[in-house]
């Protein structure tokens, strides 16, 4: 009896401390700025409901993203969680991840997509989640790799380990103005398997924040397949596409 009273008192005290902290440091939704409830993390439930989710998980092996990478890499499937539209919600989120120090937001988005994938037969396909690496200079400036954080959210929900198996060796300038082929040949040289890492016979989920031409992801996939990975699937937080 006394123990229960003590536990209740402790719980009450923790609750009060949390309320007090919320009062001094109010938590707000990263997307709309509204106050968050205790059960909410980086996004409020309204914003989660408004996320422009795709249905790629229903057509993972045959979709327009697969068409995009055909001929560039022999990947198993390609999917993206959110539909990318200029000035849309996904662009706002990607901007926050890149420039506003929001690793927890990336993890939450990964966890949300993990819950979507758990409803499908796909979730048993992978042995390991591998993020597309950032160049060390960028990593130092940003403090985290948003693709890795997205992957960590997926990892937690799907129960699949995340490992940093790739690294960039040469810094590339911004590649947005180059043609697809130039980008491909440019990025081809800059990824490699980290020293001592083995991917032989592994089924890999390769994750990145956004897919545009697919060149970066395919360059990474080719490194993994070239080192005898069994399968490589591409999963991104956002991509421009039809579904
Ligand atoms: Zn919100």
Describe the structure.
By secondary structure, the protein is α/β, with parallel strands linked by helices. The chain has nine helices and six strands. It has helices at 2-24, 45-50, 64-69, 89-99, 103-118, 136-142, 146-158, 180-188, 215-226, and strands spanning 78-83, 128-131, 166-168, 191-193, 203-211, 231-239. A four-stranded parallel sheet has the order 1-6-5-2, sandwiched between helices. A two-stranded antiparallel ribbon has the order 3-4. The mean pLDDT is 89. Zinc ion is lined by residues 29, 31-32, 34, 43-44, 46-47.
Shape: globular
Could you describe the largest sheet, including whether it forms a barrel?
4 strands, parallel
Helix content: 40-55%
Succession of helices and strands: HHHEHHEHHEHEEHE
Bound molecules: zinc ion
- The residue ranges in which pLDDT falls below 50 over 5 or more consecutive positions are none
The Cα radius of gyration reads: 20 Å
User: Tally the helices: what do you get?
Assistant: 9
Strand order of the largest sheet: 1-6-5-2
> How far apart are the termini?
58 Å
Tell how many strands the DSSP assignment holds: 6
Q: What is the mean predicted local confidence, pLDDT?
A: 89
Q: What is the SS-derived class? A: alpha/beta
**SS strand fraction:** 5-15%
Short description, anyone?
This protein is an alpha/beta fold and 243 residues long. It is built from nine helices and six strands, in the order H-H-H-E-H-H-E-H-H-E-H-E-E-H-E.
């Amino acid at each position: 009896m006394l123990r229960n009273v003590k536990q209740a008192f402790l719980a009450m005290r923790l609750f009060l401390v949390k309320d007090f902290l919320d009062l001094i440091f109010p938590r707000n939704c990263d997307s709309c700025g509204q106050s968050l409830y205790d059960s909410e993390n980086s996004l409020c439930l309204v914003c989660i409901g408004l996320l422009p989710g795709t249905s790629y998980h229903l057509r993972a092996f045959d979709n327009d993203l697969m068409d995009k990478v055909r001929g560039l890499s022999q990947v198993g499937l390609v999917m993206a969680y959110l539909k990318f539209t200029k000035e849309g919600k996904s662009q706002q989120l990607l901007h926050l991840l890149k420039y506003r120090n929001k690793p927890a937001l990336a993890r939450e988005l990964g966890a949300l997509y993990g819950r979507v994938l758990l409803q499908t037969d796909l979730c048993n396909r992978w042995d390991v989640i591998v993020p597309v690496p950032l160049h060390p200079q960028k990593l130092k400036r940003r403090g985290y790799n948003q693709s890795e954080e997205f992957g960590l959210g997926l990892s937690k929900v799907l129960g699949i380990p995340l490992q940093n198996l790739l690294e960039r060796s040469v810094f590339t300038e911004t590649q947005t103005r180059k043609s697809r082929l130039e980008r491909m040949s440019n990025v081809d040289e800059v990824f490699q398997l980290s020293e001592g890492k083995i991917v032989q016979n592994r089924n890999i989920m390769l994750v990145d924040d956004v897919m545009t031409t697919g060149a970066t992801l395919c360059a990474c996939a080719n490194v993994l397949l070239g080192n005898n990975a069994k399968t490589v699937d591409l999963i991104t937080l956002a991509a421009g596409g039809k579904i």
